[in-house]
User: What shape does this take?
Amino acid sequence: MKAGRVDGKVALVTGASRGIGREIALTLAREGASVGVNYLADPEQTPLAHQVVDQARQLGAKALALPVDVSDAAAVRKVVTGLIDAFGRIDVVVTNAGIIHRRPLVEVTEAEWDRVIAVNLKGTFNTIQATLPHLIRQRSGKIVTVTSELALVGRAGLAAYAASKAGVIGLTKSLARELAPLGINVNAVAPGPTDTEMLRSNPAFRDENKANIPLGRWGHPRDIALTVLFLASADSDYYAGQVLSPNGGVVM
Assistant: This one.
């Protein structure tokens, strides 16, 4: 049987109950990784996350459900410890968890702003910081942050989201310089308009708007997952601090 591209690795994927995160978790499982499936423990996401775990196991991978709000640093450290206790190590960290609020900045409440930053940026920080001692001990690992093409160009009505995702890029580049001498690769993926629940909730999700995408279609979560797979595998060993943006040509 042909070995997968991340065969024998242990991966943590945050926000993995649906959409892009789900596809990333299943792609890594398909390619041989054991997968920690993080999700927010609410009535909607809990059953979805357990479906992802079941599907990963059907692919022959080990998988573990990890309920935690990534904005809670102490809770994140606890689930990372649980993942390592279960699988013995951690090799790949994918910080995908994210939320969005759409409204003009003048109408954004302080609570809304704080929550977006807490999940998208602080959650990325919390997850990486919790896993770093283990990666440093191994002197190896792949960290893949998930940002957005909107971090590169901005979008009216999405200031908090774009700001949080731009912060992720700054964090990624700084960590890439800090951790490269320790054998840890840190890179980012900046998805373009991808067919997920988040995009479908956007008024711009209309067939005629696909004409604004040079490749003429919405992205599929699989397009993003394959980019993450590349950055999680040995194929990307000479990549550090890069932002790969599968976006159909929206940003060039």
